[in-house]
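Thanks for the sequence, V.! I ran Glycoside hydrolase right away. Repeating your input here for the record:
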Amino acid sequence: MKRRTQRVLSLATGISTLAGCVALAATQTAAVHAAGPNYAFPQHQTYKVGVMPSASQATRDAAVEKQYDSWKSTYLVHGCASNEYYVSTKGDGDATNNGPVSEGQGYGMNIVPLMAGYDASAQTEFNGLWQLVKDHEDQYGLMQWQLDGKSCKYYSSGTPDGATDGDLDIGYGLILADEQWGGYTSDAKTWLTNFWNHDVAPDGHLKCEDDGPNTDTRPSDHMIDHLRAFAAYDTSHDWSKVISRTEAVDSSLVSNYSSSAGLLSDFVVGADGSSPKPAPANYQEDQPDNIVGYNSIRVPWHMGTDALLNGSSVASFELGDAKKWEACAKQVSGDNPANVYPHLNLNCTGYNTSDVAEEAGDSIGPSAMAAGDQAWTDKIWSYLQTNPYGDGYYGETIKTLVMIVMAGDYWSPASVSTPPPADDFSVSASPASGSVSQGSAATVSVGTSVTSGSAESVALTASGLPSGATAAFSPASVSSGASSTLTVSTAATTPAGTYPITITGTASSGSHTASYSLTVTGSGGGTCTGAQLLANPGFESGATSWTQSSTLGFTPITKATSAEPAHSGSWVAWFNGNSSKDTDTVAQTVTIPAGCTATLTYWLHIDTTENTTTAKPDTFKAQVLNSSGTVLATVGSFSNLNAASGYSQQTADLSSYAGQTITLKFTGSETDTSGGTTNSVIDDTAVTTS
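Predicted structure:
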């Protein structure tokens, strides 16, 4: 498959002849150290418009932490000097020896402060990122845009210059750091002054680079939420002029060249006049700069983020354009984030449908949220958990920032409270009630959330248990924002009745409670009417009553074939087997009556071409989830090592969920790491009560 073309700024445009690295020498300061972050991750935000992904807050936070760990271990490099860090362009060839570019350095200086609290070394890393910037300034006191990964020397021809997107993100990162730890005010305001003097054209629009002409601009640099933060932080410059002119340029372009789709080209000329227009093809880069390309795929990320943070009254244009852009992406991709092409004509048709990239689909997420498109938002959130094209620095770094936004953990330094709020949290129980027969157990998902301040350790206890009953939390303490599973086990002698159980979370800031009502019935019961509870259990009505998903865009519920026959009938649920990395799911929600025993059964057939007797690159599992989507239990776990001819019936006891509404979810995952492929097929499912 094709990979993206290298994104290289033209050195023929605006080359300067002066020596660099002098403008901020007098203002460089020693590393700043604070007692701790003011806004520790996770910072759960209530955005002003739109929807959130359907996954629980705890699930979203955990996904961000996992992505950050991966990004940091792969791209955050300690070098070139002992007090420097840089973001490597590994996998994309944007600089020699995987060196840094100012764009990536700015991304890192945004990501690291937002993850402070989770990452105990965040401020040390930020100071190292900032130190490398200070050590590699151009003649205007802004960062040399491209450095070698071993020497950290500027290696292109001509006098070093700076790129506006990197300069803008670095300035925003300094403001984030100042709010997070304090001590960066002088550096931030000096940087913003240099940015104003050299990256802002006289009429207020953003130039493409600090030594470039005053006539062009690049829409992917139009990070309006950053500019609003500049305006709130730095009153010595008229940033409202920059915001207004930037919006006017974008509005004119949309009206005249992409009124229905809202798309903006990679580069724009005539930005200083009344009729800005898409730049000619190959204006600055070796790709058609007159359409959407690897630069402007970032626009819906920035437009959507500004709309989420600032709402319809402040960010009216951004919200309107986000809605158009995400609708275009949904249409042209066939509702599949993996098929959002990195090159689009301004009329919302694919320019090159053979070129694919992870970041093109990732960047749509904030706009889908702002537009209120729940299903599209959920698909993009799921897509973010993958890297189908093996993208490197550019895609994985954009993904990290987009995931922070979509998780609800992206806070704006323009709107944070001063001083930061005191730490506090909440506790919830799901479901709020349950029923068990004597001698059985009930499980409850106990959620916690940060309601203000930073996350803290919360110890969990339960009181109000009936005689003979015990309570166990797994784990017994969590960081606020995470969840635990409470298991209430009754004895055969526990009296029948309904008992209000109080779940208490205790932290250094205080205690909070949640209530759970447990009904205990006699072991003989006599109240259960035997039944089979699943609708369309053999899939003979297609996907009716089931939900399904596939990271490759397939439908697991399908007609059987001679290669993969049904156990009975003519339909099956068929997971994976595409010789590609893929995750497929099929799920149905069911309510198990109180006082009943319940058994899950299904027929499973696995065949594989994996050549291993020990490794498990391909897996299949059956799980029980609560109404919030939290996994309560894995009741069946298989892999390519379970391959066999024909079907075998699998069973699981669901009696502990009597009185609860649960979701049964079957998930097949294939990694495609060893060349083989695995098919997992189920048929004739049932949940039988007695």
